[in-house]
Design brief:
51% of the residues lie in helices and 6% in strands. It contains 7 helices and 4 strands; from the N terminus they run ββββααααααα. Helix 1 packs antiparallel against helix 2 and helix 5 packs across helix 7. This is Reverse transcriptase. It comes from Loxostege sticticalis (Beet webworm moth).
């Protein structure tokens, strides 16, 4: 894979061989369950997570339809709040991100048998369940903390670089509602 830097692309990439075998050039690959794209976009990985969330929720709603609300909430927390690799998402469209948020809200509604247009913030608050933005903020904060407190000095340095896209994204998640507004960077 040849990563693109902004709008710069290479018109010709020479063939690469490893032990005499030609390596295929790809524009995406899956690494440890996370989709990596040549333009570093996270839209495909967010879509993967949205679809997986839909499948998990539908399975829970079918199999546990007769359970109590508290059991359903416990199942929702265990199976629908993982968002594997969400702390790595820094480059995505609002449309893709919103589709995942809506899927998360709808999953909770379906599982609990709530009306389609009930308030998402109210349904989560009434049941003491974290909403979508809270889950993402917690996952990112946990990941940043693990990077900073680890013994790998390279990862420590990368986690604290002010020009890092990940650090900028994490700060935006914690200073703006849901990460939608662009932060105003002022250094004095």
């Amino acid at each position: 894979m040849v990563f693109r830097a902004g709008s710069k692309t290479y018109s010709h990439v020479p063939p690469l061989h490893l032990c005499g075998t030609l390596l295929n050039k790809v524009d995406r690959f899956k690494y440890l369950g996370h989709w990596v794209m040549e333009d570093l976009s996270d839209n495909l990985d967010i879509e993967r997570e949205r679809r997986a969330l839909s499948v998990r929720c539908n399975m829970l709603a079918r199999r546990f339809a007769r359970c109590t609300e508290q059991v359903k909430i416990s199942l929702f927390k265990a199976y629908c709040q993982s968002f594997y690799t969400c702390s790595l998402w820094v480059k995505y469209t609002q449309r893709t991100y919103s589709a995942l948020r809506v899927q998360y809200n709808n999953a909770f509604r379906v599982l609990l048998g709530l009306p389609r247009y009930c308030s998402a913030s109210t349904m989560f608050a009434d049941r003491h369940v974290d909403g979508f933005h809270a889950i993402i903020r917690k996952r990112c904060a946990s990941f940043a903390n693990r990077l900073r407190s680890g013994t790998n000095h390279i990862l420590n340095a990368l986690a604290d670089r002010w020009d890092s896209p990940m650090l900028r994204h994490w700060v935006r998640l914690h200073t703006d509602y849901g990460g939608w507004a662009r932060p105003v960077w002022r250094f004095m």
